[in-house]
Design goal:
Strands 4-7-10-2-1-17 form a six-stranded antiparallel beta sheet, with no helix packed on it. It has a six-stranded antiparallel barrel with strand order 11-14-13-12-15-16. Among the domains are: 80 residues, Beta Barrel (OB fold (Dihydrolipoamide Acetyltransferase, E2P)); 85 residues. By secondary structure, it is an alpha+beta fold.
């Protein structure tokens, strides 16, 4: 009997509770069913932070450092210095210290890319300022390649619009200035273009071999008359120039 009374009482309580819930204002129900504000705020922050992190990661992955690779040939020892201002780079080469190379031979490649440094001269190559580990050369800022007995006698910087016209010439008209006494001599000289290389501002650096230059001075300057450029040569067949040869 008591059991039936307990069940009846409990059923009555449930009916009253349901009636109470049904009588509640719909706006109050909506508030009661809402997610707590702190959960919504923290969830929004987490999603936003994740999106920002993904965007920054994608930008870092896609970012590629671009720098000029500079080739400098020093007359004091015919050194080729490849300057890498972007910092440490991995240089791959199969050449050995003192190995003979020909002009246009590949000196090295950068990391796993197809970017290469090609020798502008023939001779025996010597490495300096690098740490060798097998075929990998770790480069902090620059490394030196010294090539003996260079074939190249001079270089000429010219704007791109003059490149085709000068390719068709067999001689060039110049003024020779002797750096020792300052005297100038006008003359025509035969020459051969060896390999034009694109440099900054749409200009080209052209390796040339001047065939009919005779001088007793250590160095002479030749000004090209009808092209805004200069030729620097030496009677020791050593070249002084700074040549950007590659962008990567």
């Amino acid at each position: 009997m008591l059991h039936f009374l307990f069940l009846a009482k409990r059923t009555n309580q449930k009916k009253m509770a349901n009636k109470y819930l049904n009588d509640i204002n719909p706006n109050v129900k909506e508030v009661m069913n809402k997610v707590p504000g702190w959960i919504t705020n923290w969830g929004t922050f987490a999603v936003f932070a994740a999106l920002v992190l993904l965007i920054l990661t994608a930008l870092l992955i896609r970012k590629r450092v671009v720098a000029d690779t500079i080739l400098t040939i020093d007359t004091s020892g015919s050194q080729i210095a490849i300057d890498l201002p972007i910092g440490t780079k991995q240089i791959n080469t199969s050449l050995k210290h003192g190995q003979h190379i020909a002009r246009n031979d590949t000196i090295c490649t950068f990391g796993d890319t197809n970017n290469v440094i090609v020798s502008p001269e023939s001779g025996n190559i010597y490495f300096a300022n690098v740490n060798e580990s097998g075929k990998i050369w770790k480069v902090d800022s620059a490394f030196i390649l010294r090539v003996e007995d260079p074939d190249v006698l001079g270089s000429l910087d010219i704007p791109a619009k003059y490149l085709e016209s000068i390719k068709n010439r067999k001689e060039i008209e110049m003024i020779y200035r002797n750096p020792n006494d300052g005297n100038s001599v006008h003359g025509k000289y035969s020459f051969e273009i060896l390999s034009p290389i694109l440099i900054k501002n749409n200009n080209f650096r052209v390796w040339i071999d001047l065939n009919d230059v005779r001088t007793d001075s250590n160095q002479l300057m030749l000004d090209v008359l009808d092209i805004p450029a200069q030729v620097i040569i030496s009677n020791e067949r050593l070249l002084t120039s700074v040549i950007p040869i590659l962008k990567f």
